[in-house]
């Protein structure tokens, strides 16, 4: 199984301060470890904590590492990166020297036919879980959520303007048959989205609804802001957090949270500060770093990627 890491050299550049150093690096979204393994080019003395919600992905990396000289540098953790503080406590680690969050799903997950992430194989079940030990699947959402919940999810997380009619048709359809396969969902979407709109659109008519369901199944946006704050709080001064996002909803949260951490004091500018909150970080990417034309040609999945980087500047962490 292959995953082509996005913005690889741009990410490595951001961590060049670790050159030749010993230190602790957290890869919160290990995937196929593409970014993490390339960190070895910067320093082979780094201890890399590789977190992934997907046990299958971790299993594949473990297998690859077992025949690699780098295996001793890695600690693999099956968890959600949102539990970073707890994970570090359990590993008896207080501070880290760098961290990466490469959000979303990997090509491995998208290409695996039995995971239900992609609508290319329509016979598959509607699963979409990154963490298969959890209960909520896309099929459960489609068969048990109320009409207004479905409509809101599809509108908010998919930015799909036909969300209402899609939700209405889902309810009508499931009165007759449970919606279990990708094929059934594609039929519902096909009758809900006007043909003229489908023809004009640059993307497949199911793209937005699939994105919405995936975000809901995996709670991708819930607590992302707090996770970024937690990562910032455990960085050593001078340490950096790099975040790659793949859609505007994610990027908005990353941008807003970075901005809050860089300017936490919200006291009116004409009054003296009474909150006492001080910046913990500086933002290194005023504008996000995006893939080159060459990268997007070679790897179309990188098209929407945005890399934002912050650097810890102080030892203090605002409560
Ligand atoms: C885009 S891939 C990362 C690819 C990796 N950087 C590489 O180069 O191989 C994202 C990975 O992060 C995992 N993931 C996404 N959100 C997560 C979360 N909140 N906690 C832990 N893992 C997560 C997914 O299961 C997937 O394997």
From TrEMBL:
Main enzyme class: transferase
One BP term from GO: rRNA base methylation
GO molecular function, one term: rRNA (cytosine-N4-)-methyltransferase activity
InterPro entries, per database record: RsmH, SAM-dep_MeTrfase_MraW_recog, SAM-dependent_MTases_sf
Domain of life: Bacteria
Keywords: Cytoplasm, Methyltransferase, rRNA processing, S-adenosyl-L-methionine, Transferase
Annotated catalysed reactions: cytidine(1402) in 16S rRNA + S-adenosyl-L-methionine = N(4)-methylcytidine(1402) in 16S rRNA + S-adenosyl-L-homocysteine + H(+)
Cell location: Cytoplasm
E.C. no: 2.1.1.199
Binding site for S-adenosyl-L-methionine: 33-35, 52, 81, 102, 109
Transmembrane segments: none
GO cellular component, one term: cytoplasm
NCBIfam families associated with the record: 16S rRNA (cytosine(1402)-N(4))-methyltransferase RsmH
Function of the protein: Specifically methylates the N4 position of cytidine in position 1402 (C1402) of 16S rRNA.
Family: Belongs to the methyltransferase superfamily. RsmH family.
Name used for this protein in its record: Ribosomal RNA small subunit methyltransferase H
Gene: rsmH
């Amino acid at each position: 199984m292959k995953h082509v890491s996005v913005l690889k050299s741009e990410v490595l550049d951001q961590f060049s301060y670790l050159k030749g150093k010993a230190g602790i690096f957290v890869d919160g979204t290990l995937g196929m470890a593409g970014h993490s393994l390339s960190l070895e080019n910067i320093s082979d003395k780094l201890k890399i904590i590789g977190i992934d919600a997907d046990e299958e992905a971790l299993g594949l990396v473990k297998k690859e590492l077992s025949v690699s000289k780098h295996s001793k540098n890695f600690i693999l953790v099956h968890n959600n990166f949102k539990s970073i503080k707890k994970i570090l406590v359990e590993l008896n680690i207080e501070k880290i020297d760098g961290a990466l969050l490469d959000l979303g799903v990997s090509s491995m997950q998208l290409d695996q036919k039995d995971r239900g992430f992609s609508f290319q194989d329509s016979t598959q079940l509607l699963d979409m879980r990154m963490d298969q030990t959890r209960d909520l699947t896309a099929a459960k959402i489609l068969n048990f959520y109320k009409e207004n919940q479905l409509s809101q999810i599809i509108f908010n997380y998919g930015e799909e303007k036909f969300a209402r009619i899609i939700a209405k048709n889902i309810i009508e359809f499931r009165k007759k048959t449970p919606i279990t396969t990708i094929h059934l969902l594609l039929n519902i979407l096909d009758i809900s989205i006007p043909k003229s709109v489908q023809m004009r659109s640059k993307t497949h008519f199911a793209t937005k609804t699939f994105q919405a369901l995936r975000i809901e199944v995996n709670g991708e946006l819930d607590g992302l802001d707090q996770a970024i704050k937690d990562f910032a709080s455990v960085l050593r001064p001078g340490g950096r957090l790099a975040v790659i996002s793949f859609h505007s909803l994610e990027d908005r949260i990353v941008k807003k949270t970075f901005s809050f951490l860089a300017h936490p004091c919200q006291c009116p500018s004409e009054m003296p500060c009474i909150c006492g909150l001080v910046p913990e970080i500086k933002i290194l990417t005023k504008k996000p770093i995006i893939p080159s034309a060459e990268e997007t040609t070679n790897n179309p999945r990188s098209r929407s990627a945005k890399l934002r980087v912050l650097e810890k500047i102080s030892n203090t962490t605002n409560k």
